[in-house]
């Protein structure tokens, strides 16, 4: 089947080779008109050939009905129209057949050859008929009339349908190309939307993990110290009232500090939500995931005043006040680092001290901080606890995510994190962060 592309639809709904019923009705109407035309023109043809009129009419009906096949076999329609041209039949079939042929997807050489054959046949037939008319005296014109009429008729019956068919075919192919391009763009946009949704979901998961890590760092250390001081307060409340008052004051200070940090974090999260909502409306869909992650990260890291290494002495002092023996040593020249580096280093030491309170209460702990040329290193190591099980006696719960959170923090900055038990029965946490 040679398709002309006149109908473009995803699934054909017409009969046989027609894509639509409308096309079938149009072709059937044209074939009926062509059959009637050829039947009428078959009457003089039968008389001139000495045949019965019924034969000429039947021949015209059959020949004209071939136009019904123009969409499936346009070459056959054109060849039939050329074949019956000497009988002066099938003018409508020739016009429609040439148009359909030129608008089809056939090679241009084949279209040109068939159009040339139709032009030559029409030229010869018209020339012979006009010359016969001149000889019989039906037409009294000059010698120029016969070639003029022959050429004009041949061009008029051939050039317009071919040119119109070429134009319609080119326009149809252009529209199909644009439609395919639009479909391709729609598929790409759908893929981009799905990818953006995946990025947004990834950003949400990352943000939830990071917020959970921040909350753990803020709450676990303060509350653990509060529990330790509360236990000490309970032990000395009757024996040493002054020490009990001091421990109660420390518990109150630590509770206020924990509340202050929680308020700051929640305030930053509210601000980050506002920024994220504005950015989501302002950027394209494909950039939602990246913009949300970047805005949330900037909001939490830069918007709030996080801890720094300058507060490390205070952190160690709080643990010492809770009864822990802590030895802090700093190597190298103290200098400033980026906010995220100082916060990460502080959180690593804080979480390591919290783990000592939970799992090795009473053990001597060493905190070492080294300022190097291209990195900052920290190590928290505790000895074996004097009384195993003392930590569990204070009912300090453990979520099991402290070491994981520290490793994620350090890895996010391109650093190295190592933790594990020591040969002497203690535990060591080490981290190196590029400066």
From TrEMBL:
InterPro entries: HATPase_C_sf, Sensor_HK_TwoCompSys, Sig_transdc_His_kin_sub3_dim/P. The chain crosses the membrane at residues 49-69, 75-99, 111-132, 144-169. Keywords: ATP-binding, Coiled coil, Kinase, Membrane, Nucleotide-binding, Phosphoprotein, Transferase, Transmembrane, Transmembrane helix, Two-component regulatory system. Its EC number is 2.7.13.3. It is an enzyme of class 2 (transferase). Pfam families: HisKA_3. GO terms for molecular function: ATP binding; phosphorelay sensor kinase activity; protein dimerization activity. PANTHER family: NITRATE/NITRITE SENSOR PROTEIN NARX-RELATED, NITRATE_NITRITE SENSOR PROTEIN NARQ. This is histidine kinase. It comes from Streptomyces olivochromogenes.
């Amino acid at each position: 089947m040679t398709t002309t592309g006149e109908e473009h639809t995803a699934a054909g709904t017409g009969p046989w080779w027609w894509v639509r019923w409308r096309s079938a009705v149009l072709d059937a109407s044209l074939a009926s008109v062509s059959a009637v035309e050829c039947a009428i023109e078959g009457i003089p043809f039968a008389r001139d050939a000495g045949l019965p009129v019924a034969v000429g009419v039947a021949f015209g009906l059959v020949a004209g009905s071939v136009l019904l096949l123009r969409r499936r076999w346009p070459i056959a329609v054109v060849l039939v129209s050329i074949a019956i041209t000497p009988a002066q039949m099938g003018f409508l079939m020739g016009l429609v057949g040439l148009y359909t042929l030129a608008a089809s997807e056939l090679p241009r050489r084949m279209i040109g050859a068939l159009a040339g054959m139709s032009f030559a046949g029409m030229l010869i037939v018209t020339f012979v008929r006009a010359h016969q008319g001149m000889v019989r005296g039906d037409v009294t014109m000059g010698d120029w009339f016969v070639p003029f009429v022959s050429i004009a008729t041949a061009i008029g019956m051939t050039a317009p349908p071919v040119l119109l068919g070429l134009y319609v075919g080119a326009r149809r192919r252009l529209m199909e190309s644009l439609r395919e391009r639009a479909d391709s763009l729609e598929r790409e946009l759908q893929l981009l939307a799905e990818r953006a949704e995946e990025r947004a979901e990834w950003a949400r998961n990352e943000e939830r993990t990071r917020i959970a890590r921040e909350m753990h760092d803020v709450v676990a250390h303060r509350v653990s110290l509060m529990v330790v001081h509360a236990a000490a307060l309970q032990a000395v409340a009757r024996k040493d009232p002054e020490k009990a008052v001091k421990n109660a004051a420390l518990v109150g200070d630590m509770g206020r500090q924990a509340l202050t940090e929680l308020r700051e974090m929640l305030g930053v999260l509210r601000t980050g939500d506002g920024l994220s909502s504005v950015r989501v409306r302002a950027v394209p869909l494909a950039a939602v995931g990246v913009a949300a992650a970047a805005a949330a990260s900037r909001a939490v890291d830069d918007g709030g005043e996080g801890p720094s290494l300058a507060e490390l002495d205070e952190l160690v002092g709080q643990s010492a006040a809770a009864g822990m023996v802590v030895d802090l040593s700093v190597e190298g020249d103290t200098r400033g680092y980026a906010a995220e580096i100082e916060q990460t280093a502080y959180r690593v030491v804080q979480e390591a001290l919290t783990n000592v309170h939970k799992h090795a209460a009473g053990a001597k702990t060493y905190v070492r901080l080294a300022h190097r040329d291209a990195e900052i290193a920290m190590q928290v190591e505790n000895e074996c606890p004097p009384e195993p099980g003392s930590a569990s006696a204070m009912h300090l719960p453990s979520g099991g995510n402290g070491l994981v959170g520290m490793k994620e923090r350090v890895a996010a900055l391109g650093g190295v994190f190592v933790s594990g038990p020591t040969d002497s029965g203690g535990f060591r946490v080490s981290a190196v962060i590029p400066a």
